[in-house]
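Quick note —
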Amino acid sequence: MFDGLKDKLSNFREDAEEVAEENAEAIEDDEQAAAEAEAVADGEPVEAQAGAAAGDGADAAAGDVADAEAASADPDSADDEPDEESSGGFMSKASSLARGRVIIEEDDLEGPLRELEFALLESDVEMSVAEAILDQIREDLVGEEKKFTKSTGSLVESALRDALLSVIDVDGFDFEDAIANTEKPVTVVFTGVNGVGKTTTIAKLGKRLEDQGYSVVLANGDTYRAGANEQLQEHADNLDMKLISHEQGGDPTAVVYDAVEYAKANDIDVVLGDTAGRLHTSSDLMQQLEKLDRVVDPDYTIFVDEAVAGQDAVNRASEFDDAAAIDGTILTMADADSQGGAAISVSHVTGKPILFLGTGQGYDDIQPFDPDALVDDLLAD
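Predicted structure written out below.
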C-alpha cells in the first residue's frame, strides 16, 4: 500500500541525510582545528594530523587564536571589531559538534526539497498539502542548530515524520468512540459519487459494528439507481441484518426516517443509511441531502471515495464538504493505491479526518485509519 510514495520519501531522506552528514563533517573539521589552535596557544605540543587539509586548518586557527591574544594584551586594540569569520562562523561551528548539534542552511536543502515537491505532486498529493509539508520540513531543519544524538538520519526522519503528521493528523473524532458515546440510535449517512464502493463499505462497517456488540439496521436511501435495493439486500442477507427500503424513485429522506423509527422501536443501536451517488453539481440530489439533514438530522455524515482516485478524490471531498458538511472520509481500494496522494491530502484539505481505509473485497477488509501507523509504514526501511 502506497509503495510508490514510500520510495519517493526514501529518496528524499537519503538526499537530505547526505546534506546533514556533509554539514556535520565540516563542523567536525572546524572543531579539530580549533582544538589544535588552543593547544598551540597554550604551548602544548600538537600531534601530527593525517592530511594536509587538517594541518592547514590548525595553522589558520592558531593564527586566529594568537591574533586574539595579542589584541587582548594591547589596550589600544580593545575597541577593534572582532574578526567575524573567526569569532562568529569558525568558533560557532567548532563548538556545535561538541554540543551534539548540526547546522543546515536553506540553500543546502534546496535540491532535495525541490525533488521532494516533484515527487509529492507525482504521487497526487494536492499542491497546498505539498507546500505545507515542505514548509514544515524547512521550519524543522533549516537555520537553527539542531541536535543529533544518534545520527543525522534520525534528524531528517524526525522532520519528515512531523511534516507528514502535520497534514494527515487533523483534529477530528474517532468513529468507534463516537458510536459508543452517542445517544442511541446513532444515525450515520454515507455520501459520495457513483461506483466508489459506498454500499459495500456500509456493509463492512455494519459487520464491524455487530462484531463489537452493536445492533445495526441498514437503510437504502439510494432510490434512484436500478438494482440498489437488490445490492444492499444481498449484503443484508449475507450479514443477517434488517434492511429498510422503499420502491425505486421514492423519497430517500423517508427511507432513512423510517429506519430511524424502526431502530427506536426495536432498540437498534446504529442506523447506516446509503444515499444515491451524485456529483456536487447535481443540484437536485444535493437538495435531497439538505432535506435529509433537515428532517432526519443524522449524527454523522461520511464521505466515501476511492484512494486510487488521487486528487479527484481530494477535490470531491472538498466539494461535498462545502455543499453538505461531512464529518469524515472513508477511502476504498487503499490496497491498490501505490501513490497515497488522497490519504496524504484529504484531511488537510477538508479539515476532517479519514476514518477508515478499505483494503479488499471481503467484509473484514476495512481498517481504522491511524496517521501514526501510516507514517511509520511510509518511513520504514
